[in-house]
Amino acid sequence: MSKGLKDLKRFKSSTLLGGTLSLALLSFCFLIFYTLYTAQETNLFTSVDSKIYGLLKFTIFQAFLSTVLSLFVGLLLAWALAHQVKFKGRSILIALFSSSLVLPTLIVVFGIIGIFGRQGYINQISLYLFDTNFGTYLYGLGGILLAHVYLNASFALRSLLHSFEAIPKEKYKLAKSLNFSVLKCFYYVEYPALRPSLLSIASTIFLLCFTSFAVVLLLGGNPSYNTLEVAIYEAVKLDFDIQTALKLALIQLGISFVLVILSSSFKINTTNIKTNSLSSITKNSKTIQILQWFIISLFTLFFISPLIVIFIDGLSANFAKILSDKVFIQAFVTSIIIATLSAIITLIAAIFLSNTRRNFSLDTRLAKYPFSKVLNLFVAFSGNIYLAIPSLVLGLGFFMMYQKYDGSFTLWSSMALLTANVLMSLPFALAVITPAMQKIAKRYDRLSFSLNLSSLRRYKEVELPYLKSSLAYVFTLSFCFSLGDLGIIALFGSDEFITLPWYLYQLMGSYNTNDAAGVALILLVLVLFVFIFIPRIFRSKNA
Amino acid sequence: MKKLVYLLLLTTFFAYANEKPTLNVYTYDAFAASWGPAPKVKKAFEKTCNCNINFIGVSSSIATLRKIQLEGKKTKADVLLGLDTAVAQVAKDTKLFSTHDLDTSIIDLPNSYKDDTFVPFDYSYFAFVYDEEKTKKVPKSFEELASMPDDFKIVIQDPRSSTPGLGLLLWVKSVYGDKASDYWKRLAPHILTITKGWSEAYGLFLKGEANMALSYTTSSAYHMVEENKFNIKAAPFKEGHYAQIEVAAIVKSSKQKELGKKFLEFLYSKEFAQLIPTSNWAYPVIKDVKLHESFSKLHLPKEFILMDGKTVQEKRKAIINEWLEAVKK
Description:
heterodimer, A: mainly alpha, 0% strand, globular, B: alpha/beta, D-Maltodextrin-Binding Protein, domain 2, 2 domains, 13 helices
């Protein structure tokens, strides 16, 4: 038997499973596009009117501003934290910033309203101290930017902190011996190390803000602050103007695709969602240190105060009433079921895809054969299609299919929600699992091939012990994402099919502030508990 | 064994025999709420029909229509209750509703409204309401409203989801015609926020977040009767007030059409008409109903304004777009 055939046989099952899945994902992507394209009647290209142009302009404008601001804040904070390594609570602080990745957008917005809103703490304190307040400034561009910075700056921080920490200490020593100022040191030593990840973080944040939904829906306040996503939602839910919705969805789809391709890296930069490494950097002067302390304290306050507000406001809610409410129980159960299912599916999909990818990228496997690179990219892209198909577009696609085919509304709704949740978590799941599986293969391939371990046995004996903590992390990540998502459910939510975020959104919409605060607290505690404690149970020493 | 099967069959038979037909009515949440008319209407109608009636509340009146459209042929709804004459035509164009062929000659409205699909069940006039104790200087016309100081805030509803929201647009359009857009630009700084439905806007107003909210001339009757409060008033506007006639119709895909018809007929019966003033806080659609004494204290507009449904349907999109452009900051 030739070596090539032997190789193919050996990796047949792992390549086929992931390959099939990846093909299925891409076909699904095409199916959505095809459904939307064939459902619309008007000619797409002749009918892009000034209204859509205005929408597009604002969507891009706010995404650009959000990206710049988030990067700036994230960079400042990463710089300060990288230079301040020895203080109590640093790791807790970083863990807290990490958890912002899974905080439900709705919760963040709720907390931000509590701090910055018309009746928020800042206005109340100012009213008490100076007998005047700032009035309504939150709703509109200001609020959108604030929430986007909150959500994305901590995301940027994690990646950038990692890049800072990867800078060899010798370089700092050299900078010091050359008597570099802080700015010079940043320019010559730190910036070159950050640059590669800076671009990919920026493009990811831009994409996330470009397709932002919940934030804009809640804080937009005025129709002029609509993004394409919200316009799609309004066209379906308020106007029932499916044609306009389709047109908007296709435009959104087109632009997202172009953006994803332009950003050229099909991966979300999450190499280090789990930050635990510590390395000390030489000390700066006293003034700079004070500045760093100021930055850390200011942004810590900015990040933590909305969460504290949720705790304080939530505690005064009538929990007996909330917990005995039939609708709440229904929403809770639905949310838990959907989150569990989507976490399991995400996990399986991520393992299949990562397994296939390492076949194409490792020399011990199939990397030396032609087309491996292309196939590798193909699989990578299929795991990241969520960036190209935003959730409302996905939702609209499902809705058109629901109209075309049979089945109950609830069934289609749960399918749409599950799909969206899985696709949403998949890029993050892959970012964690792919490198881990790669590492295991590099280390143990030769050994397990020589022992001729069967695939199942190999998984049990070799892979699982090393993957356990990553798998647990991905499970909780995906579980929490799903638990907090207000995207597709906004299109499909009804009195029969209701999730916790949708229930909270409705409570907020009816200005039922007390119950909303209680539900927000329950959701926050649930997400933080799952995110912080579940991975701890499965933490293994070797990974 | 045989006995067991018989027993089982028998119980199922009785279970089915006892099961009354259920009529699902989609309506806006203020109607379906426990403090709204729904519980009283349910009690009164179930006495006459040997059926169950199930009110399903949706965030706003137009959202009820959108829900039925979204659910398509698979909708549970038998009756839609709560659109007004301005959007009834929109609903008719969806072809999701069936004609009622009922004799509606007894219906008596300030203007004549006759329709083969929709049946009116109450009416009132849109008005901005205010709290006498909190707001001393009250605008008496659209002009005065626009020239109030900057911190004078109003809450209105989104015309795409709520009938009062659309009503205000039609009201302004009727008064200002071609200059409506210009007026909205002047009013925009006073708009605190635009809510999806009436309840949200009214809730914000009662909380003191805004000086006025778009509601009805009859809203203050609620506070007089239920809360014994006399400080919530409707501002009488010189230009006259836009009227809202609320209507209901049977959903075409319904399997309970006969029951639905019975329900529509019930909507203009004396029994229902007596419930309306002090539960939905509006005027009944038939004559000789004794109104609660509080109604004599309400502002009764001399001039009422109402565009006919066809005109509204033709111009609705343009009017909403004009508004959207004008209120953009």
